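Minimal example, chain plus guanosine-5'-triphosphate.
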Amino acid sequence: MSLAKTNSPMSIRKPKRVVNKMCSEEVKIERSGTIAIVGPANAGKSTLLNRIVGEKVSIVSAKANTTRNRILAIKNLDKAQLIFIDSPGFVGNKKKSALGGMLERTHQDVASGTDLVLWVVDSAELINRKCTLDQTLAEFSKSGVPAPDVVALNKTDLFPAEKILPVISELDQKLSSSQTQIVPVSALTGESVENLLSLLDEKLPEGPALFSLETVTDQTENSRATELIREQLFRQLRQEIPYGTAVILEKWEEDDQAIRIHAKILVEQESHKGMVIGKAGSRLASIGKASRTQLSRVFGVPVHLKLFVRVEKNWSQTEKGLEKLRVAGGLGDGC
Ligand SMILES: Nc1nc2c(ncn2[C@@H]2O[C@H](COP(=O)(O)OP(=O)(O)OP(=O)(O)O)[C@@H](O)[C@H]2O)c(=O)[nH]1
Ligand SMILES: [Mg+2]
């Protein structure tokens, strides 16, 4: 199969595991709309999206700024179609590279054109006082995103109710709009995610389904594959190394039995190349193994993966570097 052919929405070849299967004739959608998922880096936005749609559509790691572009995924309820758009987290006041600037613009763009804004807040940051609520609110208003319709106070699995309740009441007092509702959730365990969905459903405008009821995400297979590899780079590499990595698909072949993928991992410095490869190739082998497991799970067939590491000096630092990567397909869909 040619590269261009893989640029098709995921709905064309779904994973064998059937997710969100609903029969179009049985369901009449009366409400539909787009919902921006915004919030600080690492708050659990992508974990929440994956939990809502029931499969991994957005990559997750413990490192900030894992998500780099908009990720659209759809959840159908009885009579409603909720179209979620995950975004890169706030970059904050740090000195920004060209890539950091791109993340910030994407974050703002995602929230500016949607029907609803869902702000995900990390309760651990507030309870452990790494960040005060005033700082969190100030950061939110500086981010240029419209006021949230719903706040999901995430990671509640980490604390007993007596720690969570004061945060909710403080949030309630300090939010500028009395229309904003707060839902404590755990994206990790799924606790209260149904409540969150009901609340969003109530706020959706009337309208027909905007996507077919079988569609889970509009991401191309190319992008989904490179993102799953990038997830392993974020999970398995340390310090600044993952932030200077990008993945480009070089070859995609498939038949009924398997998919064969060749992908290039870009790093910014010669010294980073050795760290990605590791002693006797051990790190790259581990990245490849974990990526293959995820790819096979998502695509529903065995995946054979070959990874190569190349240096593209300081690509993330300049607009020129970003543009070169964008053209090569190394920044994913929608960039
Ligand atoms: N305990 C706990 N951990 C969570 C929860 N949700 C997310 N996490 C963890 O928080 C970390 C960040 O999760 P992500 O979903 O990547 O966060 P994000 O907001 O998408 O981050 P960026 O893409 O970097 O902006 C990961 O280690 C997750 O496993 C939760 O409800 N409970
Ligand atoms: Mg994310």
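DSSP finds ten helices and nine strands in the chain. The longest strand covers residues 246-254.
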